[in-house]
Amino acid sequence: MSTLRFKALAELPFRNYRKDNAVDVPKKLSELFCENVFSEETMRNYLTKEAFTSIQDAIKRGTKTPRNIADQIAVSMKDWALSKGATHYTHWFQPLTGTTAEKHDSFFTPFESDRAIERFNGSMLIQQEPDASSFPNGGIRNTFEARGYTAWDPTSPAFIIGTTLCIPSIFISYTGETLDYKTPLLRALQAVDVAATEVCKAYFDKNVTKVTATLGWEQEYFLIDTALYQSRPDLVFTGRTLLGHAPAKGQQLDDHYFGSIPTRVMNFMKELEIECMKLGIPVTTRHNEVAPNQFELAPMFEETNVAVDHNSLLMDIMARVAHKHHFHILFHEKPFKGVNGSGKHNNWSLATDTGENLLSPGKNPKKNLQFLTFFVNSLKAVSEYSDLLRASIASANNDHRLGANEAPPAIISAFIGSQLYGVLEELEKVTDGKLSPEEKTELKLNVVGKIPEILLDNTDRNRTSPFAFTGNKFEFRAVGSSANCAEPMTVLNAIVAKQLKTFKSEVDQLIDNKNLKKDEAIFNILREYIKECKHIMFEGDGYSEDWAIEAKKRGLNNLRTTPEALKQELDPRFIALYEELGIYNHREFEARNEIKLEKYATVIDIEAKVLSDIARNHIIPAALNYQNRLIDNVKGLKEIFKDEEFQVLANEQMELIREISKNVSQIKTGVDELLEAKERARSMNAGQQQAEIYCNEVKPKFDRIREASDALEMMVDDELWPMTKYRELLFTR
């Protein structure tokens, strides 16, 4: 292993990455946009008017596409794909593994002994039948029941990668249960569309016929030289370093953040952006992040379903492009101890088909009341379902990041800024029932009317808040970098949909039963909501211990670990919410909970095996090798010097020998205890109890082994140390 480490380091200076991987960027990236996408413009060129109208209706209104029209679309899609060099097609879907999946089928179809054609029809477009037996299902189906179906999602455009036409699809079991991330997301988006549209039409704008949830994600990641990556078995097998002493210089000077992008990395970014443009991913931002070798990119806002697909596609493309530039990309939330981990901030809002952002104030009190309605209802939804939101971002990887001084805490709270908080405090004083003319005037002029200038001049950002309002959107900062955005977006849109339904029902009751006008009824309901959700509003430092104490007083849960969060997820209220909105039935939801618990346990189990292997087969032998050299040195000193002089000259070596023995013993004992705890956990049936044992009994034993190993790293001769060090991983450009 030490040979591999030094071989990798020796080769790096002689590789001319800057020249060999230079990228020519076209004068206008916009000319490449959607080049490999069956976009609306491409559809206009390839589809008949009837087929184009039908697919647009499916995208914008959710209408079903007739079979004969599907045949027309399939033929046109095939002709376009063939013109781009495609030879195969696949239903591209997102199973519960956390990655994307695809099964390629050829357009090639023989029809006589010596003749063939390229064939693709409506039935091939609409449905495919991959083997579903090996995908996570949480006990929904038996392993021998292999059949599953993928079905075309027309709301997300098809695209080409290499020679394959990729058709975004949902994935369901033979018996109809959802087995993917996309299906529940589509249902949640439909639910929030219906609920928000009804509120808009009833109280603010009768011309609104559709409300779209929008998403802008921010993807953080690390780039590590491929050769160095391959020299670290823990990175290869777990995505993070299980051992490694912090370098003298990390991120203390903040010199990497927003600094000049290294040339080699810039070449990677240039090629990545070109590929993104071709696939219609509207990336616009790139920069160095806080930690060494950490970077970020972000796109423009898009419709949430498309944005989720684009993020999943992007992560795949990033890995491919990184490989070409001799990088390995790390999406793990905490690949290196002692420096910042990576997140994927989800910026969420709601937009109408009349062109308005419902979380942005307008030019008059009516528009501002509309803003307040959706703003306060979003806060109320988070207040009511904070534990469900926390569970949506729970994973073994994200547990390392949440609550550290780099990411929001596991306590779900909302930051809205002191100025806007003051507006809500004023609204709390609204009279119960009918409002006097003077009060209406006061509200319109001095409270609601001042919102635009408040947001323009005083909206700040709080990086310690998991759910922060940033001017015209909410930023869900707690999402992990390796996560599929679909799950947190499913939860967020579902809880807001439920809250908006409740809001409309309560406002209508006041109008009908108390004879209040619309704005009076809205103010009355918002007043109560503000009182009920003030406990989640927090403006201070979410990293501080004081906040943890204060949050407990407020009744907010601090679910620090994934098992804790997933235990809360099965609250009957949450299951009832999903069943009411038609997003999951109880069987599907419980199955997903089981899948997440099993994945958590499996991740910890793999890490335990890898750590044990490295500790016993790499760290201990290297330490003993160096110790033997010290022993030989001590023996030599004893032969040369008299006892009195020998005791002085050999004292430091003797102390090192003792320290090495202590740490080797600590590692040996620690590994034995770790493996014993791991086997005890494995003997349990998969589920909540097993996950808790992995969390509370197995995972804590990693620290003792790491502590001793990292101490040895500072003692053992650098030439003998087998593991590529942090200073090499993080600072090799």
Automatic annotation (TrEMBL):
Any GO BP: glutamine biosynthetic process
Record-linked SUPFAM superfamilies: Glutamine synthetase/guanido kinase
All copies of domain GS catalytic, residue ranges: 181-619
InterPro entries: Gln-synt_C, Gln_synt_N, Gln_synth/guanido_kin_cat_dom, Gln_synth_cat_dom, Gln_synth_gly_rich_site, GS_Type-3, GSIII_N
Ranges of residues in domain GS beta-grasp: 87-176
Gene Ontology MF annotations: glutamine synthetase activity
Source organism superkingdom: Bacteria
Residues annotated as transmembrane: none
Family to which the UniProt record says this protein belongs: Belongs to the glutamine synthetase family.
Protein name (database record): Glutamine synthetase type III
